[in-house]
């Protein structure tokens, strides 16, 4: 595992082959969001998009907690690290990019959540593509209960991801939910034993990394770019993204590998 130099004091960014592991690393504050963390997250997502050999990311939290939401004081204070300060000046809207509200990475993110994943932590989870949570994890959007608003996009995204009544239950009551209830709502993919979320998320990430990267990215892009479109218009976009994948060298390699009964070796071309 290679520790990348874009890491910050509150965000550890590591790469292992095609997979990038992003760890929110402020356990003394239950990994509550800070400027150092958000700049690290924004840097990680930009790196994932820009690096051709990176195919998937995993987002997790250090020491048994995912993220307890925003630390408004820490988010308002500049980093003490000169390099991170310089990066903050170079990344417009790093808060929104770090929170996956703007400039989503072009590759999938698998979430691995243990412990508290509440408020901004749940908003981050909602911004990911696949979600693994530990059985004792706690999720919830507490903003309305505190007369606040979920600025990470949950008021828009959640009713599009799960049934309306469940989304409004979470958004309007501000109550917490267990991992089992989140699974029953369709908010998460898998519930696993405590301490296993990252390992299972990594297994999923490895499966994605073994798939054709052009296909994976085109599927993700098609979903995002067709939100709100009627089916005929959406199918035109799907064809625009899909036909180049069908005609790619990777597609030919996939067919050869299937016929030869061997693992495929995809190069993203």
From TrEMBL:
Keyword Hydrolase: no
Molecular function via GO: enoyl-CoA hydratase activity
Keyword terms: Lyase
EC assignment: 4.2.1.17
Transmembrane regions: none
Annotated SUPFAM superfamilies: ClpP/crotonase
Family affiliation: Belongs to the enoyl-CoA hydratase/isomerase family.
InterPro entries: ClpP/crotonase-like_dom_sf, Enoyl-CoA_hydra/iso, Enoyl-CoA_hydra_C
Enzyme class: lyase
Database matches in NCBIfam families: PRK07799.1
Source species taxonomy: Bacteria, Bacillati, Actinomycetota, Actinomycetes, Streptosporangiales
Name of the molecule in the record: Enoyl-CoA hydratase
